[in-house]
Design brief:
By secondary structure, the protein is mainly alpha-helical. The chain has two domains: about 230 residues, Collagenase (Catalytic Domain) (3-Layer(aba) Sandwich); about 375 residues, Neutral endopeptidase , domain2 (Neutral endopeptidase, domain 2). It is built from 26 helices and nine strands. The strands form three sheets. A four-stranded mixed sheet has the order 2-3-5-4. A three-stranded mixed sheet has the order 6-8-7, with helices on one face. A two-stranded parallel ribbon has the order 1-9. The protein is elongated and about 85 Å long. Its cofactor is Zn(2+). InterPro entries: MetalloPept_cat_dom_sf, Peptidase_M13, Peptidase_M13_C, Peptidase_M13_dom_2, Peptidase_M13_N. GO terms for molecular function: metal ion binding; metalloendopeptidase activity. This is Peptidase M13 C-terminal domain-containing protein. It comes from Caenorhabditis brenneri (Nematode worm).
Length: about 675
């Protein structure tokens, strides 16, 4: 785990809660709980700026008029909307972290790695792109040059000949620009598996957007075209797009390897396309490493229909289609990025370097040490839970305990990247010692293209197993479980105020981040990943009887979510879609509570204004803060595809399964938060 120097600074929020006075930061011993409390003296009050911030949220988000036994989510978060309009309490703090990164990138002139220097160049370029209209013209000129590398564009090529056209060549040339959208298909990297997913796309962009984008390119490059020809090409494009959007793929279709589907769509050479994502040297060897790790929808009928459409479309239409879609993609991206804060785009494009800058210069290293200790306590709680399970057979119990013991973790930042030059080494290609090389003279488009090309090359290296870590935006925000490595990644953003801080009482850290870390560990034992062993290998280590019992208990949670009366969506939710996340929530809250009760809290400070509240009640209120959210705006159809449960369920639906919650709040049997039927996993 990481030990990174640096301490953030904060201003005492004395205007939030009266009576604030600074006090020395406490030292947490994380000692085990004793059977008896030896001191009767009143607990001190935590008055650090971070604790006052937490007290502010606890006071202002809760609705004391709501009975916690009827609706604990509303009791803890009922007034959240009066104080914020964003969904989730993490978002403001993430934005603050990004703003701090902007300051660091601007004012720290000397960085340890040249990769960080590349980040500052890109920040400067994005800022210039927003501030100078002339940059638009330069980017449109560079965009046109890129289009010319894709292939002959019929609309602007006088005497264009069908003999010049090859569909796979054009798509491969788009891939060589680092684009994950190839006109007819979209490519996505699933880093947790790791595999490439590729699937057909229908209508991707707003209607009417293309025509203006194309005319802007013509104006910037002094291109004259016959308006009647242009209009006909637009009509042909729209007709083909409409035809593609009508293709229906079976909702019951499984995922299969691309090489199995290739026979149904011979007009597209997927090997040629994927090789274009790679560096020139060693492409055949690299293809052999990844070809079995490319998956797509296994729907032969739909692919055969797509093949028919391609065969029946004119080559001119197909050539224009590939180019028009690339234009739509890039110009829409320009428009979206202009609205995005420059520093946020840097984080998106350089997540690992951004994380390094942030941690080195802002983050409290004490938080990392405490988080690592918490992981170990949670690990013990999982082992204890398995040991005390009344239904696991000994063979399964031993394997579950082994998997928990062998689970590796990274806290905050990979330790190996603290060595001088280590980060730069990661950003060099595996085959060729070539660095990503942005230049001050590059246009925004040129910089973006270089970065996208490099990111796709790195993704290929990762899927091929040549590198052990890939830089994605997920590395900045949150925590995640990596099933193929049986490892846990906990990044710095959640290890910060308001969810975690070295000045917090231990119970507050466990209720906030402990719940989340416990949730991520729980993914190792959820329905999706429980049959992976301690080495991350696909191996069913469950006895048949235990597997049946596990599924029965998981079905209880599926039905509970199906029957849940959500304040936004009513009783219309799908527990089968969310079961992996719900099981992880159940296991996370159970093991976090076990950890909290296993430690000595007798000397822990209380939170301002909650001195007489009782630590157990306060614990649950802090845990609920994680999911306080504005009313969700997703349509039901979209929400039904989301793997996570609704915020309300992640409090009410989860806590109502805990006997200790009902005991803490004296909830009568049969009340919403103390139902007679509870769902328990282990």
């Amino acid at each position: 785990m990481s030990r990174i120097p640096g301490r953030k600074t904060s201003t005492p929020p004395d205007s939030l809660v009266p009576g604030w006075e600074p006090e020395p930061e406490p030292e947490h011993s994380w000692t085990l709980a004793q059977n008896e409390v030896t001191s009767e003296k009143p607990s001190p009050i935590c008055k650090s700026p971070e604790c006052i911030h937490l007290a502010h949220k606890l006071h202002n988000y809760r609705d004391p008029t709501v009975d916690p036994c009827q609706d604990f989510y509303k009791a803890a978060c009922g007034k959240y909307n009066e104080h914020t309009t964003v969904m989730g309490i993490l978002l403001p703090e993430m934005k603050l972290a990004i703003r701090n990164l902007k300051i660091l990138l601007k004012h720290f002139l000397q960085f340890v790695s040249s990769t960080e220097t590349q980040s500052t160049l890109f920040l400067s370029e994005t800022a210039g792109y927003r501030n100078e209209i002339a940059r638009d013209q330069n980017d449109l000129k560079d965009l046109f040059q890129a289009i010319q590398t894709i292939g002959a564009w019929p609309t602007v090529t006088e005497n264009w000949s069908e003999s010049e056209f090859d569909l796979s060549d054009m798509m491969a040339n788009v891939a060589s620009l680092g684009s994950d959208r190839l006109g007819l298909f979209k490519v996505e990297v699933r880093f947790s598996l790791p595999v490439f997913f590729i699937w057909p796309v229908g209508t991707e962009f707003p209607a009417g957007y293309l025509e203006q984008s194309v005319k802007n390119i013509f104006a910037a490059n002094n291109i004259k075209v016959d308006e009647r020809v242009l209009e006909e090409d637009f009509k042909s494009f729209e007709a083909l797009e409409a035809e593609l959007s009508q293709l229906k793929y079976s909702p019951n279709a499984s995922w299969g390897q691309l090489i199995e589907v290739q026979t149904h769509i011979p007009s597209v050479d997927f090997e040629k396309i994927f090789k274009s994502f790679m560096r020139l040297e060693g492409r055949d060897d690299m293809w052999n490493k990844i070809k079995d790790k490319i998956t797509t929808i296994n729907d032969p009928t739909a692919f055969e229909s797509l093949e028919t459409i391609l065969k029946n479309s004119s080559k001119r239409t197909l050539a224009n289609f590939i180019i028009f879609r690339y234009i739509n993609l890039m110009t829409l991206y320009f428009s979206q990025q202009r609205k995005m804060p420059c520093e946020k785009e840097v984080v998106k494009m350089f997540p690992l370097a951004s994380l390094r800058v942030f941690v080195r210069n802002h983050f409290d290293k004490q938080n990392l040490k405490m988080a690592a200790e918490m992981v170990e306590h949670l690990r013990k709680s999982y082992i204890e839970m398995f040991e005390q399970s009344t239904w696991l057979h000994e063979e399964t119990r031993e394997k579950a305990i082994l998997k928990a013991k062998m689970m590796d973790y990274m806290i905050g930042y990979p330790e190996e990247f603290e060595k001088p030059g280590a980060l730069d080494k990661t950003f060099k290609s595996v085959i060729i010692p070539k660095m990503l090389n942005l230049l001050e003279t590059d246009s925004y488009f040129s910089s973006l293209t270089k970065i996208c090309q490099f990111q796709m090359e790195q993704s290929v290296d990762y899927v091929a197993g040549l590198v052990g870590l890939i830089a994605t935006e997920d590395l900045i925000f949150g925590a995640s479980y990596q099933p193929l490595r049986n490892s846990l990644d906990v990044t710095v953003t959640i290890l910060d105020d308001p969810m975690f801080d070295s000045t917090y009482p231990a119970y507050a850290n466990i209720a906030g981040v402990g719940f989340i870390i416990g949730h991520e560990i729980g993914h190792g034992f959820d329905p999706n990943w429980r049959k992976m062993n301690e080495k991350g290998e696909k191996k069913d280590w469950w006895t048949n009887e235990d597997s049946i019992e596990y599924d029965k208990r998981a079905q209880c949670l599926i039905e509970k979510y199906n029957d849940y009366d959500d304040p936004t969506y009513g009783r219309n939710l799908n527990g089968s879609t969310t079961i992996g996340e719900v099981v992880a929530d159940i296991l996370g809250v159970e093991t976090a509570w076990r950890t909290y009760k296993s430690l000595d809290m007798s000397n822990e400070a209380t939170i301002f204004g909650f001195e007489d509240f009782g630590l157990d009640k306060l614990y649950f209120h802090i845990a609920a803060l994680t999911w306080c959210s504005a009313r969700e705006e997703f349509p039901l159809e979209t929400k039904l595809t989301h793997p996570h449960a609704t915020p309300s369920f992640r409090v009410n639906g989860v806590f109502s399964n805990m006997k200790v919650f009902a005991e803490t709040f004296n909830c009568p049997i049969g009340s919403p938060m103390n139902p007679e039927k509870k769902c328990e996993m282990f």
